[in-house]
Amino acid sequence: METVIAFIIVFGSLVFFHELGHFLFAKKAGIMVREFAIGFGPKIIGITKGETIYTIRLLPLGGYVRMAGQDFDTVELQPGYRVGLYIGQTGEVEKIYLNQNVSNPDILFMETEKSDLDKELFIEGYSDDGEFVRYPIARNAVIIEKGQETIIAPYDRQFESKSLASRAMTIFAGPLFNFILSFLIFLAIGLLQGVPTNEPVITEVQSSGAAYAGGMQDGDFVKEVNDTPISSWTEFAEIIQKHPGEQLSFLVERNGDLVKLHVVPATIEEAGQKFGQIGVLYTSPVEKNALKAVVFGADQTWTWFKRIFELLGMLVTGKFTIDALSGPVGIYKATEEVAQYGIYNLMHWAAILSINLGIMNLLPLPALDGGRLLFFLFEAIRGKPIDKQKEGMVHFVGIVLLMILMIVVTWNDIQRFFFSS
Questions:
Q1: What φ, ψ does residue 122 adopt, rounded to 5°?
Q2: Please, are residues 406 and 395 in contact by the beta-carbon 8 Å criterion?
Q3: In contact, 188 and 28? CB cutoff 8 Å
Q4: What CA–CA distances, in Å, run from 176 to 162, 180, 183, 369, 372?
Q5: What is the pLDDT along the chain (421 residues), one digit of tens a residue?
Q6: Which sequence positions are flagged as catalytic?
Q7: Other CB atoms within 10 Å distance of the CB of residue 59
Q8: Is there a contact between 135 and 122 (Cβ–Cβ < 8 Å)?
Q9: What residue stretches are annotated with the PDZ domain (predicted)?
Q10: How many CA atoms lie less than 13 Å away from 333 in the CB half-sphere?
């Protein structure tokens, strides 16, 4: 149960922040947001506030923000439709009843001849007594069909009416908020747990290693390696790894004195590569400093961004196979393992996942945010948008392919975690 709760909190937070980015920038651009959803499939909970319904859905595999004018959102009243109109005190139509019997003397029934719910906002046709009538439609008019109410979206409230920059920023905001979430998590870790100083201080010397043979002791503060000043443990470790089997001279500070040592790193071979190792353990001390926590958050976000991007490049070039990918099952199992090591490790894992989600969504593939941004780039180059039907077909094919990939990855996860010997 603890693993389930941890997974829901971690994955739910990533999806929530991603969709929150789309939502806030859509609102800022003046786009009507019809639904803010966490999950897919049947609705479990739905709360309507203003013009938006906030829902939690059955399948916790993502989420979406449904904006006016997208994905067949528009409503058209074809000639011959019989509709009921509720006209407010201003003379504008405030409610339009479709395919519904309403016993209300204030409702005017008519057969639609022509209407425009986007730009001119009017409806005209013949009333039951044969009189031709025309009424203006309020900007916030509601269409009621089978008991479900939908607010109309004038064209200036629709996604496609906005400038290219506003549309692109609304789509880009999702991945952007994932990167922001990662920074905030790393910042919280720095503030609560402390920021590693990364000082090159030896925590423990293993008795079987080259460092012990060379006279290194617990607590030695490494000042120089081969007469090169050392300022961080990272620099120290990189030099050791790059010089397997070569004698290195160390200048260390021990109890206030400077001591000269000579150590030959052992040669370790892994994945066809050789690197040096001297047999020391390191536990970085930490300090609580708000400014350093900010720097730590930014540095960790950028470091993991580069690392995940490099791993993605290895996948594209064939150095990794599809078996290296993980879906929801793999993420669940990894979350289960990480959660055993405490809240800070779980937070660190969530930050990495958030960066990964942001990068994956920026890939220029159909149905992903990156694919939509690619179409915006084509629009900027051509000076006019791509045909919406063609773009929709491309995204549909992309969704199908992504679903197939998700099924394959999930099946691989199930076999790896539940059926492997």
A1: -150, 165
A2: no
A3: no
A4: 20, 6, 11, 11, 15
A5: 677 888 888 888 999 999 999 999 999 999 999 999 998 889 999 999 989 999 999 887 789 999 998 766 667 788 988 899 999 999 999 999 987 777 788 899 999 999 999 999 999 999 988 899 999 999 999 999 887 888 999 999 999 999 999 999 999 999 999 999 999 999 999 999 999 888 899 999 998 899 999 999 999 999 999 999 998 888 999 999 999 999 999 999 999 999 999 999 999 887 567 889 999 988 877 888 999 999 999 999 999 999 888 888 777 776 666 566 666 677 777 788 888 888 998 999 999 999 999 998 998 888 889 999 999 999 999 988 888 788 878 878 877 887 787 777 777 767 766 666 5
A6: 19
A7: 10
A8: yes
A9: 181-256
A10: 12
Residue 329 is encoded by which pair of tokens?
């099952």
Residue with tokens 């993980």: 326
Q: Are 127 and 110 in contact (CB under 8 A)?
A: yes
Burial 290-311 (b: 16+ CB within 10 A, else e): eebbbebbeebbeebbeebeee
C-beta separation of 194 from 287 below 8 A:
yes
Domains and CATH numbers, the chain: 81-151 (no CATH), 201-284 (2.30.42.10), 290-419 (no CATH)
Q: How many residues does the chain have?
A: 421
Can you say whether the dihedral through the CA atoms of 339, 342, 343, 347 is positive or negative?
Answer: negative
